[in-house]
């Protein structure tokens, strides 16, 4: 076997790159080295949640979940980088600043590639153990590429994806690779291939939610197919996830105590966290979607006079600094409900929404939805529920992007800050985040996103 020597810092590695750069990297003092030789070495890599957990933060700042009129005090709480993302600025970062999202997600890709390059030839492990480790690496890589594609690549349009410039697609840990962007269709084909070839080796549910499972794969496949507008496939994988009996948490049970920490949250299927926290006032339009007795409003929001509105508090309620942005069981019900809505099946839409909503109200306050409540616009009813459930996570940004292809279901967003107005319209190049200039200086072939 060709043993690989890599740097180990705490669990595995600090990627020795300036962001993605696969040829130009900054050497830093080595804490320790270890040869990846045994299967347990690779097991150690995938067991350490720090290697794959932290993701990005700009999607939260860019989405219309935050207020559209920002005060100076609120802007100060956001910080300069998040403020730039909030305003969909030409650039988000200043000189010598790093893009945590790009760095973290390509770090996940790099570590997954290291695992996949060596685990099947490793020593002293069973075939089954090696296959599970490889499959976990594939799921983490697929999740990273999905996030990257929905931040730094164009909105997936089935009629254009074969020619849309996607991302640098790295499938080996080599430091010498072609970094030219491949077509977006190729990126998504790789995401799907990683997931469908990983699923068989994985358990139905994870023992710990930092490990991928069949349930996680089915949720992610459903999400990916929604973005690709393969609605029948999205529904199929949501049904496969539902067949595994996913658990929903009754929020009422936690009103007098701390909400479960991410590791203990039964709804969290694959733990991923934001790269920092957003403290900003929530859009009044979103707040108006909640019934006064909806516990997501009363328990996960809190009024902050210094911000001039309500702020999102769920991370604090769970004792976490970061926002959960991974795969969760509510998404299964909402993905399936959306596909039913697109098929004009009002009865199934109401059934699925009620399964979720029943867990978001006190028993004495809960009133089930009826067909009459949603039949005027089934898809809008599902979109509204997605906004209530996924408020102030990355999901709204991903939904905003794909809904630009659905006509009236995307509304132009206009923001005001410091006497100026900023507008995000369907078709705007600002739906694609800029690539950090420091990365382009090292690797100009990647090319800047159109601004």
Write the layout of secondary structure elements.
Layout: E1 4-7, E2 33-36, H1 39-47, H2 58-62, E3 69-70, H3 72-78, H4 80-86, H5 100-118, H6 127-152, H7 184-198, H8 214-228, H9 231-242, E4 268-270, H10 284-287, H11 295-300, E5 301-304, E6 309-312, H12 314-317, E7 327-328, H13 329-342, H14 346-357, H15 371-374, H16 378-389, H17 395-403, E8 413-417, E9 420-424, H18 437-442
Parallel strand pairs: 3-8
Antiparallel strand pairs: 1-2, 4-7, 5-6, 8-9
Helix pairs in contact: 1-6, 5-6, 6-7, 7-8, 8-9, 8-13, 9-13, 13-14, 13-16
Give the gist of this structure.
With 451 residues, the chain is mainly alpha-helical. The chain has a domain of 315 residues: Alpha Horseshoe (Serine Threonine Protein Phosphatase 5, Tetratricopeptide repeat), CATH 1.25.40. The protein contains 18 helices and nine strands.
Task: Describe, in plain words, how this protein is organized in 3D.
- InterPro entries: SusD-like_N (IPR033985), SusD_RagB_dom (IPR012944), TPR-like_helical_dom_sf (IPR011990), TPR_rpt (IPR019734).
- Keywords: Cell outer membrane, Membrane, Signal, TPR repeat.
- 41% of the residues lie in helices and 7% in strands.
- It is built from 18 helices and nine strands.
- It has a three-stranded mixed β-sheet with strand order 3-8-9.
- α1 runs parallel beside α6 and α7 packs antiparallel against α8.
- The N terminus is likely disordered.
